[in-house]
Design goal:
It is a single chain. This protein is an all-alpha fold and 562 residues long. It has two domains: 254 residues, no CATH class; 223 residues, no CATH class. Helix 16 packs antiparallel against helix 18. The longest helix has 34 residues. It starts with 23 loop residues before the first helix and ends with a helix.
Length: 562
């Protein structure tokens, strides 16, 4: 029987792949979800704390008689100049870098492979960061206006502070964009470097904002516009009624700052297309080893040895097995005898980072000593050098302990570990700061012959309190980083450094009880008022000891959290 094979008709399915284009609003919504409970929105709380502290300080300065010339709401606008002059740019840079670091640590939440252009993702992230910057300005201005309405001072110069808030929104948005771009170049190093560079940028801007050639100095662009809006000089001193600063045009500064912001946005978007948050660059990876949380690739380098298994044939090629090179920690583990927490911690602390920063500090102080009189170097060391150095030591210590903290506290008590790192940090920090102080006083007179005056000059009293103040700052930074997050410790130090500059750097304010509100400036307070040195030492040791106790009590909670 024959079978008839029917010809089959080949059906060609022409499926048209529908191209689904995700809109910008969907990307923004996704970024909003990813940024929940992160520093992107936590920065609003930091700004609010700054504002509340500013209101309290303004009222305290008036009630104590330090300020006699009064404007709207206790000169609130003048006090807000510290936000523009030292707080906004560093915080914006940190926020942008933290957003990118978040995506690197979370591997973009598994979304890097989706069919969405990285540039569009970066654009959506910039939109969210801009919304966060806008909320920060609300947190900056709204409490001041609300306080004015409560005490009966009215709305005040609403046009000036609204323009100021708008301008700072542009500045902070641009800083966030530049922070994102900085992370693509420096990776995790940018978390520490960006705020420092932002603070230097801000200080240089307020110093040179009133120059005639300000338009040639980009750092002066962001500092010039707030002067007539807040009614202050670059030094935060109230403007005179006939001051030419009142007549500064605002449009050039606005346009230049907008251009700087757009440049940062464009650079951040372009960098977003170069591999995303998870890509790595060899030079950046080398730099990331120096920062907290960075993996030391040198320690991970391995050698290969050839071994031959008994099952292998005699003529077979031996297989290569990688073995790790002995690091400092592994070599110390082979030392016989009882284990020491100090010796163990000595092998993991970031000595190279500290040494590099110490060299930079000494070099900068050397330049100041050559170019300027000794007083400039002393002021810088007391108000900036010691606080920043001690804070970096405390933060980087926790950055290196954090990855292995769960295992560490099972081997040895948290108190012993923290005490060991405190001792080791002091062995490094105190000699470096002592050498820095010695460089600043070269050529200066340290003794007096007048019997009505103390036998030694102010720098000596500053040196006497320096170890206690450095211990306090390092201990508080370590405790805050351990109990919360490293970024919280960074923000807290930025605020306290600014308060130290504002109060400790002002002879009139430092002469009142307000000096107790600026512990990061206590070294210069002892310099100006030698009779307070013993109280400063005792208070510093007390605060530092309480911080170490708090860190010890929070040790287990930190292990569970991380």
């Amino acid at each position: 029987m024959s079978t008839v094979v029917q010809p089959q008709t080949r059906v060609k399915a022409q499926g048209t792949a529908a191209k689904v284009r995700v809109g910008l609003w969907e990307l923004v919504r996704a970024e909003l979800t990813r940024s929940r409970r992160t520093f992107t929105w936590g920065v609003i709380g930091a700004t609010l704390i700054f504002t509340v502290h500013t209101i309290i300080l303004a009222n305290a300065s008036i009630s104590s008689g330090v300020v006699t010339e009064l404007q709207w709401n206790g000169n609130a606008l003048a006090w807000m100049h510290m936000y523009a002059g030292g707080f906004a740019v560093p915080l914006g840079l940190l926020t942008g870098a933290m957003a990118q670091w978040r995506e690197q640590r979370w591997r973009q939440g598994g979304t890097a492979w989706r069919a969405v252009a990285p540039r569009r993702v970066a654009g959506a992230r910039l939109v969210v960061l801009s919304l966060s910057a806008l909320a920060c300005q609300v947190a900056l201005v709204a409490p001041v206006v609300g306080h004015a309405l409560i005490v009966g001072n009215g709305w005040g110069p609403w046009d000036r502070y609204l323009l100021f808030a708008t301008y700072m929104w542009i500045v902070v948005t641009g800083a966030c964009a530049w922070g994102m771009a900085a992370f693509h170049v420096l990776r995790v190093v940018s978390i520490g470097v960006a705020p420092v560079l932002g603070f230097v940028w801000s200080v240089a801007g307020v110093v040179q904002a009133e120059r005639s050639d300000w338009w040639m100095l980009p750092w002066a662009w962001t500092a010039r516009v707030p002067l007539p809006l807040l009614g202050v000089h670059g030094s935060s001193v109230l403007l005179e009624a006939d001051s030419p600063v009142w007549g500064y045009p605002l449009l050039p500064g606005f346009l230049l700052t907008i251009g700087l912001t757009l440049a940062g946005v464009g650079l951040a978007v372009l960098c977003g297309a170069s591999g995303g948050a998870g890509s790595s660059v060899s030079s950046a990876s080398r730099l990331s080893r120096l920062l907290p949380g960075g993996r030391d690739a040198v320690d991970d380098q391995s050698e290969t040895v050839s071994v031959q298994s008994p099952e292998q044939a005699p003529g077979a090629r031996p297989r290569s097995i990688p073995i790790r090179r002995a690091t400092l920690t592994t070599r110390m583990a082979r030392v016989p005898g009882p284990r020491s927490a100090i010796l163990a911690m000595a092998g993991v602390l970031p000595w190279i980072v500290w040494a590099v920063l110490a060299v930079l500090l000494l070099a900068f102080l050397g330049i100041l000593h050559i170019v300027y009189p000794p007083g400039y170097g002393q002021s810088f060391l007391e108000l900036m050098g010691v606080p920043v150095a001690a804070a970096l030591v405390g933060i980087t210590v926790w950055g290196h302990l954090q990855p292995a903290w769960r295992a560490l506290i099972t081997r040895r008590g948290a108190g012993a570990i923290l005490t060991s790192v405190a001792v080791l940090s002091g062995f490094f920090l105190i000699p470096v700061l002592g050498a820095s102080w010695g460089m600043t006083v070269l050529g200066d007179t340290l003794t007096r012959t007048d019997p009505t005056l103390p036998a030694v000059t102010g720098p000596v009293y500053g040196f006497m309190v320096m170890p206690a103040v450095a211990f306090m700052i390092a201990a508080v930074s370590l405790a805050v980083a351990l109990s919360t997050r490293i970024v919280v410790a960074i923000v807290l130090n930025v605020i306290l450094v600014i308060m130290g500059l504002l109060i400790g750097g002002n002879d009139v304010m430092a002469a009142t009880w307000l000096w107790r509100l600026a512990p990061w400036g206590w070294m210069t307070v002892a310099h100006q008022f030698p009779e307070r040195w013993l109280e400063i030492v005792l208070l510093s040791l007390l605060i530092g000891s309480l911080a170490m106790v708090s860190a010890t009590l929070s040790a287990r909670r930190a292990a569970i959290r991380d």
